[in-house]
Amino acid sequence: MPDTLTVTDNRTGQQYELAITSGTINASDLRRIKVSEDDFGLLSYDPAFSNTASCKSAVTYLDGDRGILRYRGYPIEQLAQHSTFLEVAYLLIHGELPNKVELTSWINNITHHTMLHEKGKKLMEGFHHNAHPMGMLVSSIGALSTFYPDAKMIDDYDTRMLQVYRLIAKVPTIASYAHRNSLGLPYVYPDNSLSYPGNFLNMMYRMAEPRYEPDPTLERALDVLFILHADHEQNCSTNAMRSVGSSRADPFVSCAGAAAALYGPLHGGANEAVLTMLNEIGSVKNVAKYIKRVKAGEMRLMGFGHRVYKNYDPRAKIIKETAYQVFEVTGKNPLIDIALELERIALEDDYFVERKLYPNVDFYSGIIYEALEFPTDIFTVLFAIPRTAGWVAQWMEMVGDETTRIARPRQIYTGPDERDFVPLEDRE
Ligand code: CMC
């Protein structure tokens, strides 16, 4: 049996054979389906990309029905248990786990680029004291483009890799400066003798002590959270990274576009929204009432539901376990009881069961972030730091793919037909 689809156009009675490759038809083949010679041909309508593959990618595998997530074939559970974020970032970008020499050189390259240009620091000082850290992050990542004009040379592999080092290295520095800017605290320079998450904690929290010593449990918990957030195939922000990058814009402005997409409450902004929601609920006894309001359509249960997962998000499972390790050091965050009760009621309720709504990555992450004393408005920034590795991995894959063309969807025009211009004095 050939892998084809036979379609009959009932408008004309014509039959067409469309090739099926990897369980997919090529949308451009639909253009052969016409009612007349001058017909443009059939289009598919899919405004939220619900059933459209926008690229071929070998980076991340996701099976939402079975709750499976793998980076380059490795199950997320194994990576979270045995790996580090920087090793995972290497894996995402290069496709294989590094050997010892490759890992040492990779870590050296990243740590060599953690400093922010002093003028970049000055730029950040210009933000208002109550500027949202995501706004500062988006603008400052975009501004990196002005410091590194070589980034435009996207056809050169070594130059591309240099921007990859810069982005992965500098985003935590920008993130911590955004935090310290809000508090009016002096910026802390990177300490490159610390691990990637350890140095981030140092830049966030160091005060007068000569050297910041991160708590090893908290440092590891943050590394695990970074691993879990590193990539998630073609989500809204990654699609933005690819879409902006497809115009051959440099990776800094493309990454700023991706970070902007992450900011929204339906995407990375959900972790902040979850904490706001848990605080609003306030107590376990109010949970049932809140669920009723969600079911009445007054609001959504933040941290629940996913476009692709129709099963428990495997990342949420690991984050829930990690939360208890963090609480052993920080003490229990009382919001966990509200979250557990919400999850319990929701998972038994027909509304959530029928719609296959399960906790997603954002449901428990905010509770850990709060236990680590991160302010709520920096939560989405904490998502952006590791996701930068995914964005650049996907961008590297896209730029290296000779078949890449500029992203340019079609539309269904719904406006008026041609009409003549009416001079202002003749308009009613
Ligand atoms: N609470 C209550 N009802 C919901 C929720 C929710 N969190 N999510 C979806 N629904 C309902 C929705 O009202 C709709 O019901 P009906 O069929 O009666 O109209 C049905 O479930 C399908 O929802 P949808 O909006 O068509 O689903 P979507 O795939 O377009 O949206 C989503 C996915 C993640 C935007 C959505 O589930 C949502 O808004 N969740 C809350 C925000 C959130 O937690 N976002 C983080 C996503 S995970 C991290 C990331 O990748 O960014």
Question: Any descriptors?
Answer:
6 strands; 17 helices; Citrate Synthase, domain 1; 3-stranded antiparallel β-sheet; mainly alpha; 428 residues; binds carboxymethyl coenzyme *A; 50% helix; single chain
Structural summary, described in words:
By secondary structure, the chain is mostly helical. It has helices at residues 76-82, 85-94, 100-111, 118-125, 133-147, 157-183, 196-205, 216-229, 236-245, 251-263, 270-281, 287-295, 314-330, 335-348, 350-354, 361-371, 379-399, and strands spanning 4-9, 14-21, 24-25, 60-63, 68-71, 74-75. Among the domains are: 1-48, no CATH class; 60-231, Citrate Synthase, domain 1 (Orthogonal Bundle), CATH 1.10.580.10. Helices cover 50% and strands 6% of the residues. A hairpin with a 4-residue loop joins strand 4 and strand 5. The relative contact order is 0.12. Carboxymethyl coenzyme *A binds next to helix 16. Residues 232, 235, 266-268, 270, 294, 300-307, 355, 357, 360-362 line the site of carboxymethyl coenzyme *A.
